[in-house]
Design a protein that fits this description.
Layout lengths: L1 H20 L16 E10 L7 E7 L10 E2 L4 E6 L4 E7 L4 E4 L9 E8 L2 E10 L4 E11 L2 E11 L7 E8 L6 E6 L7 E8 L7 E9 L1 H12 L21 E2 L8 E15 L2
Parallel strand pairs: 1-16, 8-16
Antiparallel strand pairs: 1-2, 2-3, 2-6, 4-5, 4-7, 5-6, 7-8, 8-15, 9-10, 10-13, 11-12, 11-14, 14-16
């Protein structure tokens, strides 16, 4: 009787192995490829207390999903930024690696600037305003959560100007992690009062230094980043994450309005500090 049971078990095991082997065929996934897209990383960042004359804009082209080289630098483009109130023109020189740099840029709060990129016979433009940033007052550290599910939370406090809508970007760059974390906030419920922007991170460790920048940003860039952060796979999305939507920047092709241009042109003043985790 025992021998019969053993053989029965061996038979079942062989059937399972056969089924598993039958599922090892390679499946080719056909991902639609709409062609290369121009990707514009044009962030003009002006640190408080500096001249802000050196600025860099990065251009690249997107590639297919399974391409082994996802980052194709754009070279040979003409890149300029014009300050609208006085017509000042700033030429961003091609560094032949996808970067374009100006060393004579003149930042002015609340002034409008227009980016123009000439590439492959097309003209790409975007217009934004240079937004002021608040002064960082202090940093507070606390523990968020309970039991085994805890993480360190940093809150960055600053004074919000009254009677005007303001939008802020917080950038947190810890010394023990490879990438920064981003957070955005508006003054919808705190207009004219002390406000704060926070960052929760389970990977913060005692002794790590966190570089912190707080930027003033436009409402349009705030909306853009809100969508980007929600679609980045944050654990805060919970069991009912936001339905993905197309993330559209502010750069357009003058010659073909239907062309999809990725990225954003924005100008921000920022205050900066650092904090060491207790």
């Amino acid at each position: 009787m025992k021998n019969i049971n053993i053989y029965n078990k061996l038979g079942v095991l062989l059937i399972i192995i056969g089924l598993l082997n039958s599922c090892t065929d390679v499946i080719d996934v056909n991902v639609p490829n709409g062609g290369a897209r121009l990707v514009v990383d044009a962030s003009i960042n002006w640190q408080k207390g500096t001249l802000g004359e050196t600025q860099t804009i990065h251009l690249r082209e997107s590639t297919a999903f399974f391409d082994n080289n996802p980052d194709v630098p754009v070279t040979g483009a003409s890149v300029t930024v014009t300050k609208e109130n006085d017509g000042s023109l700033f030429v961003f020189a091609d560094q032949n690696n996808g970067s374009y740099t100006a060393t004579d840029f003149v930042p002015e709060l609340n002034a409008s600037y227009t980016l123009e990129i000439l590439y492959n016979g097309n003209s790409y433009t975007a217009t934004e305003t240079l937004i002021a940033a608040p002064i960082i007052n202090r940093i507070e550290q606390s523990i968020e959560g309970s039991g085994d599910d805890t993480e360190i939370q940093l809150q960055v406090f600053f004074d919000d100007p009254g009677d005007v809508g303001n939008y802020y970007l917080g950038e947190f760059t810890p010394s023990n992690l490879p990438l920064p974390s981003l957070a955005v906030i508006s003054d919808e419920f705190t207009d004219g009062n002390e406000n704060f922007i926070e960052n929760d991170n389970e990977n913060y460790v005692a002794g790590a230094t966190v570089g912190i920048n707080v930027y003033g940003i436009s409402q349009r860039y705030y909306d853009y980043l809100n969508i980007l952060i929600q679609q980045s796979g944050s654990d805060e999305a919970g069991p009912f994450p936001t339905t993905p939507v197309q993330l559209k920047g502010n750069c357009t092709n003058v010659n073909d309005s239907n062309e999809e241009v990725l990225g954003f042109f924005r100008l921000s003043e920022f205050d900066t500090t650092s904090y060491t985790i207790d």
